[in-house]
Amino acid sequence: MELNWTTLLPLVFMAVMGLSLLAYVVLDGYDLGVGILLPFATDVEKDIMVSSIGPFWDANETWLVLGIGVLLVAFPFAHSLVLTNLYLPVAVMLIGLILRGVSFDFRVKARAARKGMWNALFSTGSLMAAMAQGWMLGAYLTSFDRGPWSLAFAFGIAVTLPTAYAMLGAGWLIMKTWDELQAKAVAWARKVLWPMGVALAGISMATPLVSRTVFDKWFAMPQLIGLLPIPVACAAAFYAAWHVTRRPNVVAAGYGWVVFASTVLLFVMAFLGLAYSIYPFIVIDRMTVWQAASAHESLVVIFIGVAITLPAIVVYTIFMYRVFWGRARELSYAAK
């Protein structure tokens, strides 16, 4: 296909949408993981865990809004197909995110007798959102097929994706907390590391089996050789996380951030593998990026809006993390 502004613009929007969803998965993934881990902490530790994500969690969801917004305005045909088939898991995800938001605010002002309930709802909302996103990913990779194997595949990802988010959350807590809670976070990371690794390996092996298109793109020469850096990088990242979580002295020396960085690298490699697997489709085997795109004139107008919005979100995100970086502080609700 000849590349010109007309054919290139849909690819630009696909890249923006993909990178937005990757940013969401990584950034909101760690605070979903913190929510999933919340029941395993003491009351005092729960306050510190919530404090560690307090300045970030709401803004992290901006990337989800941007990604879905681009899907809606730039690829309306794909939006209709995707959201029609994922109506129920999207509704479950939104309920989970609403539960998280309500619980986060109400736990601040709750009486001691009610605080446990809001903590439980915050954790429940986090798990609901994580499992719903896993089901959505599994259904998407099978092109929304409703056969028993496809449903089992989607269910498998729904069950295992929370372990990956919990690993991100544990890595975040290792960086942001101290003493006993940091030691607990290291222990949590050790416990979810292998389930996460087995889940990711299983998904990677199963995806080519449920999609002939993906199989043909990965298991052909010379592509197979060119794609080797992806599994090699994943193996190196997994080993780095395993190595650090087994050596408390390494964490105490200030290298706990390696756990979080390694998990992020795993997510990035998985994203690159997925992007390669589905291209040029926006819905595998059913709709290409050009078939799903809006009219060129509409994309030009949308591009102007995205060119203004995207840099603003990036700058705000960088500024926010720079201002609130460092160890978490204990929660204080004293009136000012």
Characterise the protein shown here:
- The chain is mainly α and 336 residues long.
- It has a single domain, classed as Up-down Bundle (Formate dehydrogenase/DMSO reductase fold).
- It contains 16 helices and 2 strands.
- A two-stranded antiparallel ribbon has the order 1-2.
- A hairpin with a 3-residue loop joins β1 and β2.
- The longest helix is centred in the N-terminal third of the chain and has 33 residues.
- The chain is globular and about 60 Å long.
Overall tally of domains = 1
Total number of β-strand segments?
A: 2
Mean pLDDT equals 88
The helix content is over 70%
Structural class: mainly alpha
Roughly how many Å apart are the termini? 62 Å
Question: Class in CATH?
Answer: Mainly Alpha
| Main beta-sheet strand count, sense and barrel state | 2 strands, antiparallel
Provide a count of the helices.
16
Assembly state here? single chain
Proportion of residues in β-strands: under 5%
- Give helix and strand order, one letter per element, not per position: HHHHHHHHHHHHHHEEHH
CATH architecture descriptor text = Up-down Bundle
